[in-house]
Model the fold of this input.
Amino acid sequence: MELWDDALNEIYGVLKTQLSTSEMDALRTKQRAWIKYRNNTAESEAAEFGNGTMADLAYVSTTASLTKERCYELVNIYMK
Done:
């Protein structure tokens, strides 16, 4: 998951230099909503396994997968 978090932060940093202030403000708002969505989705996936070791795996797997998707999404939308 750390690999995709690092990639997401790098992409976000590049976008800060390329987007206008208003575009960056809009992206920042969308990004905050996406982080809540990612975390809530991961928690929901993990909850299906109760307190077992699979819960941790489900949480990490879901956050990594969603973060990877977000990286590609940001590149495809903003880095044309």
In short: The chain has a mean pLDDT of 95.
